[in-house]
Structures are given as C-alpha cells and as structure tokens.
Write a structure and sequence with these properties.
By secondary structure, the protein is mainly β. It has no helices and 14 strands. Strands 3, 4, 5, 8, 9, 12, 13 and 14 form an eight-stranded antiparallel sheet that branches. A four-stranded mixed sheet has the order 7-6-10-11, with no helix packed on it.
Length: about 220
C-alpha cells in the first residue's frame, strides 16, 4: 500500500500482475530481479614507499637497505539504500552479521623491510579500526546485543628470506605473533557471521608458522 496508495493500475508494481479482463482476477505474475537499492562509497587510498641505504648514516654498506611500505584506506562514507524510495544510511564505522558488512573508517598495513646480503627480514603490522555493531535491517539500528561494539585490532607478522643462490630461496615466518583472537560480537537479532565473528575481516586462525621453498628454473 505504501508503494501505491491510490491503487493506480499503471503503478510499476501493479504492472507485474496480469489480470483477467472479466473479473480482474490475477492470472500471471512476472517475477524478475531489479536493482531497487543502491550503494555509495567514497574514500581515500594512500600508499607510501620509501627506501634508504644504511650507509646514508655512515654505516658500512654491507649492512644493506631499509624500506618502508604504508597502505591505508580512509572511508569517507559508505551509504546504502534498501529501495528506490528508502532513505540513504551511512554504514561508515559499523559492522553487521552478514558477509561483507564491515566498514571500518580506517584500515591499513605497514611493512618495514631490511635487505642485507642474501637475507631479507620483514615486519608487518595490520590495522582495522573499531566499529559499532548494527542490525542488518532497513534502518541499520544500533545493536542492543551483548557485545554492541568491536575494538580496534592490530596484528603483527614477521618473515625472513634467505637467497641460497640464484635458483633457490627459503622463506619462513610467523603470522599473528601475539596469537590475537578475533572479536566476538552480537547484534540484537543474532551473532556474527561465523563463530560469532567476521572471518572476512578478522584473523580466526591465530598464531601460525610457515616455510616456503622457491626454485627458479
């Protein structure tokens, strides 16, 4: 009724029904997919790369080079509209209980690399801003669940690579050094996407090690 309060037969929704000319009974229904809602995203992506040979500080050149890589995304807005007649709601800084429903205001990665002789050492920090939990309804109402917010999260990784020769290299590392568990959060209706959290946003595996061997032919 809200979409057609005057019962106009020319209304786009009414046109989806075929009626009998005799008694106006519904004879057929057209079922189709329509893009009724909308999404708007605005943000700023930043990347900074900087390299510096250690001999710039008077050190022996054999101490190698340092390099810094910074990647950050700052979300200006993440608006969503349920239908063409619905208002726009900004999801910036919120997370919900469905896949791809996390919109941190700030997210990024910093990697510091030391390259010396046949060795490379890298430390990486991954950051996700804290968010408010919202219900996945038409107005994205604030959650009144047991855990209505998630804190900012920072993960630390480390890896090292040895180039044995021109053909063989060995890489070993540690991911999530602090063995940080993902946040558990709940909306008013239900818990997170999987295991009461969001595995597409947070690390659910914890501390782990890896070793890779690379061979060039």
């Amino acid at each position: 009724l809200d979409s057609n309060p005057t019962y106009d037969p020319n209304n786009s929704y009414c046109q989806l029904f075929t009626r009998s000319t005799a008694n106006f009974a519904v004879q057929d229904i057209v079922a189709t997919n329509l893009n009724l809602g909308g999404l708007k995203r605005e943000g700023v992506d930043m990347q900074v790369d900087y390299g510096l040979p250690l001999d710039a500080f008077g050190a022996d050149p054999k101490w190698g080079d340092l390099s810094l890589n910074i990647l950050f995304t700052y979300l200006l807005n993440a608006e969503r509209q349920e239908t063409v007649t619905s208002p726009w709601f900004d999801r910036k800084g919120t997370i919900s209980q469905t896949v791809a429903s996390a919109f941190p205001e700030l997210k990024g990665r910093v990697a510091l690399t030391w390259n010396v002789s046949d060795f490379l050492f890298r430390y990486t920090m991954r950051y996700t801003d804290g968010m408010d939990v919202v219900n996945n309804d038409a107005v994205f109402s604030p959650s009144t669940g047991a855990v209505p917010t998630v804190d900012s999260y920072m993960y630390h990784d480390f890896s090292a690579r040895w180039n044995a020769n021109d053909m063989i290299s060995v890489t070993a590392g540690v991911t999530n050094i602090a063995d940080k568990s993902p946040p558990v959060y709940t909306t008013s209706a239900q818990a997170g996407i999987q295991s009461n959290t969001d595995p597409s946003t947070y690390d659910v595996l914890g501390l782990r090690y890896f070793v890779n061997v690379g061979v060039k032919f």
